[in-house]
Amino acid sequence: MRTWATLLALAAALFTYSGCSSQPTANTAEVTAASTEQTRAVEDARPWQEILPGGESICSDGSPYKFLTRQGDSKKLLVYLQGGGACWFRGNCDPAMKPTYNINLAQLRGYQTGIFNLDNPSNPFKDHTVVFAPYCSGDVHIGASDTEYPGLEPDQPPLTIYHRGRANMQTVLDWTYANATEPEEIFVTGSSAGAIPSPFYASLIADHYADAIVTQLGDGAGGYRQTNSDARPHEAWGTFRFITEEAGFDALDSSTMNYESLYIAAAQRHPNIQFAEYDAAQDSVQKSFLALSGQQDVDLLDALTANHADIRAQADNFRSFIAGGESHTVLARPEFYTFAADGTSIRDWVAALANNEEVEDVRCINCDQDGHIDPQ
Q: Which domains does the chain have, with CATH numbers?
């Protein structure tokens, strides 16, 4: 039976991409932020502004949640959900053991590469107002539970993890609704763990901005398909405390919830929205976490193909771009401007999506190798 165990195990995607080890660390979030070139401070004419929303928002360890915004064209809005791991049992939730998620936002800084590079004239989002939703709840932005994980030894006290991804995202949405009052074009996206819930939040945003053109793109989370485990991480997170109360998602079932479910429900509720997914054919990060969940030697391209077929069987407003190679995510990386597949550059394909143009599915020809174009 397909569940989210594999998908959500792999949500540690950006954690690994950022160059961090999955070994124990005093503060995973600090190491992640410090080790990646993407997260250095932005000191340009449009710097990131930090928002401390308070209320019910909180990181996994009880520290404050915050998010970033950057002012641009008021008619063009980019909403980005950050990735950074997941946890659903004591061993990978406990900061003193082997945490596989961003624990807090102590070192949060705005990205400056890929679609966040304002100096690249080819950036299709260089003029957009940006709302950047950081991630520190260990629940791929869809948790609603302060979960107590019992000790693994008789003298080990229980550990409470604040899985408040849904509340954190609501503070982001509330600020956006109050401050971006009349956007005409909205692009909702996220990488890795942030890609997983992006169709869900695109649906909520489209419900609010009924007159806007909304487009969605998930970056690097499409290959989680089957698992040999009955584990259901979303139950530890309390996802079903709210999700079936959201318009269009009432038919979801905890026992069968999977990667495709959110795309199908969102695409059926909003048939005029273009939903999309980007992945590399043999994403090494996704494959490594599939192996951890018991699926050895997975051909990720087969998993991607099957997942996409399941979505298309119930929704025709879905497109996909499968690049060659083993890389993980692309939107926030310099390779956004240099990767291509079957003669189509990723940058051009995403730009067409952002311009509300018709795009076709793109699939790598030589799927074992990265496809490069001349840098722009």
A: 5-363 (3.40.50.1820)
